[in-house]
Each structure stands twice: as C-alpha cells, then as structure tokens.
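User: What would this chain look like folded?
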Amino acid sequence: MDKNARHIAEENSSAIGTETVIRIRNLYKSFDDTPVLNGVDLDLKKGENLVVLGRSGTGKSVLIKCIVELITPDAGEIEVLGKDVRRLNSEQINALRRDVGFSFQLSALYDSMTVRENLEFPLKRNLKIFDQKILNEKVMNALEEVSMEHAVDQWPADLSGGQKKRIGIARTLILNPKIMLYDEPTAGLDPITSEEINELVLEVQKRHGTSSIIITHDLTCARAIANRVIFLYNGKNHFDGPFDELTQTQDPLLKTFLNYYNIEAR
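Assistant: Here's the prediction, encoded as structure tokens.
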C-alpha cells in the first residue's frame, strides 16, 4: 500500500465538514428493461473522498453520470450543492457542471488539440476568457498542479496513459470545481503510476478542499484515498463505511469480492 498517500488521506480526513454537498435518494435507472440502479442512496460531505466500489455492471459509472445529467435517471432525487438537479433547465445544468468537475476514465482529451489548447478550451467555452496572457497563466498554473507543465505544447498521442490522466485532471481543475467526480482514475496504469495518481487525487482534495466521488475497481486505490466506501450490489447499497471496516467484514459477498482482488478480509 502507498503509505505516503495514506498519510495524506489521514490528514485530509480532519477537514471533512458536516455539510452535505450531494444527496441522492432512491435512484433508479434501467436500460432496455435491464435494471442498473435499483434504489441507490448516497450522501457526500464537504471535503470528503467517497469511493464507490462494486462488480462490473452494478451501475457505478451510471451513478456519477446521473449526478450531472449526462444520463437521465428514471426515478429518484438528486441534490447537488443544494440544487434539485432533476428540476434544472439546460442553462442551469451547464452552470452546475462548472462547479462539478468530471474526470473521465479515458481522459477525454481532444487528439486534434495540443495540451495547451485542451486546457484553454473550457476556459474559452465556459468562462469566455480569450485574453492570451490570462489563458497562459491559468493553463500553466493548472499544469503545475499536476506536474505536467513541460508537456504544454505536446499532443495527447505523445503522452503516456498516466500523463493523459494528469492532463485530464488539470483540464477539470482549471475551472475550480467544488466537487470532483473521478471515473476509474487508475484504470490501465502500472502500480507506480497508480500510486502517483492516488497522491494527486489526495493533493487535489487537500489544496482545493474538493468533495469527490471516485469510481474504481482498484482496491489499492480505494484503501489509499477513501475517507468512506460505498459498495453497490444489484444496483443498490450493500455497504457504507470506512475501508478498514470493509476489510473486517464477515459478509460472504464482500469477502468474495475482496479475495478476488487479493485484499484479505480480516
């Protein structure tokens, strides 16, 4: 386990507030009569890193896409920063998305743009900033946060998987979101790069006071960065608590999941 990441996580835990920044109740979503979310409940506290675990097909990625209306749920309540998401119009949804950063699994960089242009794009589109001096300053500040300032004029095709993850996170951070949604931040990365991404997620939490939901299959990632864990099974909550409590479970379903990923349930 990454001891440095765990140390940062323990420091960050003291900054978690009591305010609920995301509240979800009885969330349902089906695709072609196949239930994916089947009554999910979730609360995210201010400054908290909440990891959502579960087997493939349990609706983890669907859940966070519903939060920002990338997918429309069939039923349920979603409140983000005090706003009823399901009652917002398209203009209000776009405004909310500026406060909720979404880090996609595959980074979602534009291959036809340099790193600089990828980071300038949300500034121009969302904040209507066109002054090149201001753009340069914001781009370089964002890249420095993820230790990628040297790549400012490179193309995405020239970057490694870990570098693309960092650039994707920088492009999200450049709008100063209050909430971060990470979809499989360490997927496809080697163990050393995964540790670096874990530390980056924790540094973002520490520097910006962000509240984050992290979708992952990587239990080493979950152990390193989670203040709390939710485990979904058959589209609904099966466990909600600290990671250490998860590893002490006697629940046969959870023990099978942990053993599959070589995490021993004590």
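Residues 1-99+180-196+210-266 form a domain with the Rossmann fold fold (CATH 3.40.50.300). If you want, I can go into more detail on any region.
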